Amino acid sequence: MASQLVVRACPPFGMSGPDAAEAVAGLERRTGELLDRPELERARAMVPRARADFLAARLAQHLLAAELLGVRARDLAASYSCPQCGTGPGVSHGRPGYTLDGVPVPLLLSLSRAAGWTLLAAVTAPAAGQRLGVDAEDPQRLEFEGFDTVALTPAERRAVAPLHGTALLRGRARLWARKEAFLKMTGEGLRRAPEALDVLDRPGIRDLASAESGLPDDLVAAVALG
Ligand SMILES: CC(C)(COP(=O)(O)OP(=O)(O)OC[C@H]1O[C@@H](n2cnc3c(N)ncnc32)[C@H](O)[C@@H]1OP(=O)(O)O)[C@@H](O)C(=O)NCCC(=O)NCCS
Predict the structure, then answer these.
(1) Which residues, in sequence order, are bridge partners of residue 123?
(2) Does ligand 1 have an atom closer than 6 angstroms to the CB of 84?
(3) Which atom of ligand 1 approaches the CA of 137 most closely?
(4) pLDDT tens per residue, range 10-59
(5) CA dist 22 to 10, 15, 16, 61, Å?
(6) pTM above 0.90, yes or no
(7) Which domain holds residue 82?
């Protein structure tokens, strides 16, 4: 089977309106059936809004994995790996993955949340050693003084210097999404200094337009594959 990149956006989980309590109860029930104990324990420590976002995203990721593999969702077990904490049944953070009958499945996964949306990326039938990272960003979040100094390399700062207003925020968000996608791909996350990672022309990283990502136009996203 040929390797294929799949990208899917999931809209914010609705927690207002007359059906909200029922929707939350349904989410808790479904995730209680499908997610693993460490995932549910992590969710329990969160405030309601964050918990719903986390559970909805983990559920969407679990169901996407089952769909792409053609297996029953309840037969998959989450298997996360963190460069610091390792891999194993007790780890519920870091790089996502699943096992089927105790064997890691042939599927790369990456997840990002922004402005309530969840962006999922997957690579089916990956080549040996292949890695994937995805990131979505809300440009409005990056409107603060000092961002360029703490987040961008000198070349990147020069690239955004002529921009103003919305174009500046989108320019920053585009670079930040590229950095986080790359750092999820390597597994390092923000343990690696973002202001020393140039992503203007780094091979393997590309922007995801909303037509491909499925996200609203006001969000930006990037994928890294290598
Ligand atoms: C990876 C990272 C940059 C993403 O942060 P963010 O922008 O706040 O969040 P996003 O919504 O875009 O992405 C979150 C997802 O990234 C993924 N992720 C987290 N760490 C990852 C890693 N090391 N490698 C690959 N993917 C990772 C997970 O799927 C996570 O989803 P979850 O919340 O369901 O667990 C950030 O989590 C990080 O730097 N992590 C490393 C440090 C760390 O995790 N320390 C604590 C544990 S020792």
Answers:
(1) 5, 108
(2) yes
(3) 12
(4) 999 988 888 899 999 999 999 999 999 999 999 999 999 999 999 999 99
(5) 19, 10, 11, 22
(6) yes
(7) 1-127
